[in-house]
Design goal:
alpha/beta, seven-stranded mixed β-sheet, four-stranded antiparallel β-sheet, globular, binds pyridoxal-5'-phosphate
Amino acid sequence: MIYEDYEIFTPGPVKMSKEILEIGAKQTPYFRNQEFSNVLLSCESDLLELLNAPKDSRVIFLTASGTAGLESVIMNLFSKDDKAIVINGGGFGQRFVDLCKSYNINHNEIVVNNSNLSNIEDEINPEDCNTFIVNAHETSVGHLYDLDAIGKFCKENKLLNIVDAISMFITDEIDMQKHNIDSVILSSQKGLGLPPGLTMVVLNEKAIARIQDINSHYFDFKNYLNDGLRGQTPYTPCITIILQLEARLKQIKKDGGIEVSIQQAKELAEYFRKGIKNLPFEEFTPFMPNAMTTLTPSDDKSASDIVNILENKYKIMVCPNGGELKDKIFRVSHMGDMQKSDIDNLLNVLKDI
Ligand SMILES: *Cc1c(COP(=O)(O)O)cnc(C)c1O
């Protein structure tokens, strides 16, 4: 159960850097003071900068896993008069559909398989909808959508554009202004390479104007926005993860910014994909993010057998799929503190088995 000496290629949690691990080993400090407020305010402004958020955008920090970020957006931004187009290309798209059902949100589910929505205007009729919801990277299958095309479509049709960027932030491009995005949902344990427990909801002015009165204390955005003005949260946050986030964001900026981070992920993904060219695997989708590669065995091996052999015999954790895809695919993440030497280790083993 303790995987300390394992190689980690799962798409969350991901391999964390030594610096982040060291912060995690320290005592948790008290937080109702100016020092912690400064940390939270600096996280907010760095996140907004990395997302190229428009002026007057805000970040809500919720101590919860990423799904709470998705759920809180569904709870706070919809009235009975709103209607959403929900892109469903796998497990995480399905989660948005299920959330809409739970909260009786009017929605139009669009099941997507072999498209990255580059030709969205031919594929989707906005009809009577005023909101668009998509998981930029559908992590269940490793499928990246075209945020450029989606952004233009949303602008043209006056749709509030809500993007779950949890598994592509800092590995793949997302720009709130260029892509006309109104709300972005992030989470600590994917590309950011932190422990799970913190989800962040970014809202521009237009999204803030959509906030409703809701029947929830913990997830009431108004309280978070209000307390956030002075760098605080209404309830005790995951203080240590926020300290780790601060360090991580500063590091990204110091290393040259989001472009450098995306470029590094791209190089790692390409290095891995080049390495498997002569092995009996095929790439599952042509629309791969830098964050992850999804592979199908091209011989008669079962994907889940491969996952088990890697874990049990070689102490390498890749990510299995469930259900129908159990024997068909497995996933290899390139997120977190990944080096080429980590990828070499995996490639050498894949050659052997
Ligand atoms: C990981 C992930 C989530 C959140 O999952 P949690 O387990 O609740 O943290 C949401 N959307 C996508 C696309 C993800 O990859």
